[in-house]
Fold these 3 entries.
Entry 1:
Amino acid sequence: MQADGARWQLASLILGMALFLGACAHGLHSSDAAGGEDEEINAYPTNYKPEILGAMHAYLNDPTGIRDAGISDPSLKPVGSAKRYVVCLRFNAKKSGNDYAGVRDIAAVFIAGRFDHFAETAREPCAGATYTPFPALERLSR
């Protein structure tokens, strides 16, 4: 029984270290450090919808029962001091139980054609975005 506890502690420590090191390296790319923009970093995200759906499972406490889901097409927008492909999302997710938090906008940021992170402050990159229905987001399950 004590061995299981030790394994759990070791696994937790390794996971914590991985998350810490990942956070330190998050968003650091050689072209960013040099201040250059290259085509590889800003590759068009061809599989953006499946990547966003996968990320939403981790992002939301309860990914079920989403309402009013909308998505924009990818477009190059300023993110920090660089331009990145951004996909804007609009949705109403559950807060707890059957209570909904209200409609909100977030921006999915892509680097090298792959999902990188969600930006909570989507006001600037998503200003004027045109949303189309995103029923796949409304059908998410646990």
Note: The first helix runs from residue 2 to 25.
Entry 2:
Amino acid sequence: MTCPTCGKPVERGGNPYRPFCSERCKLIDFGAWLNEEYAVPSEERPPLPDDTAHPEAPAAGGGTPRDSH
């Protein structure tokens, strides 16, 4: 097996960083995920139209006016 970051051979037994060869390569890979350099492919649906304004929805502040006595 080779390290996915640097390509060096990785020892099978006793390596706490496996599949990486070292902590450095593990952290480089983790940083790439955090920087969104990698992405998991997905089949995203197109965004729905903006439906924040419904004719049946109450106006902002909502509810019915209160009587003030």
Note: The CA atoms of residues 63 and 69 lie 18 Å apart.
Entry 3:
Amino acid sequence: MYFHVWFQTKRRTRVLLGDVDARIHELFAEIAKEKEYNLMAFETMIDHAHLLLEIADGKALSFAVKAFKGGSARRIFEAFPALRFQMCSNNFWAKRFAAKEIPRSNLPIVEQYIRDQKKNLVEL
């Protein structure tokens, strides 16, 4: 099953910039490799992230999202301790996430949408 997943930073704080954004990208790739998730595409904006995941079933989706959010939050706060104060929170990501199952036939469209997030914003 394929899922387009998105979630935001706590209080939509605009912290996914520069070194923090680059580190989040590294962390998502590391977590996917560690947990053996097929992370087909991902991108961040200044206050949220989009992932395209292949997961065995819908029940496993929440565990996968928890791995990405929890693992990246812990490690990003280790790398950038001042973020806790900047965000006024011990949580990097908001509690909730949204996801939509994607039919195989729509994968190229969704993958392109996710990969072009920043490019499309710059063009506006």
Note: The first strand starts at residue 2 and ends at 8.
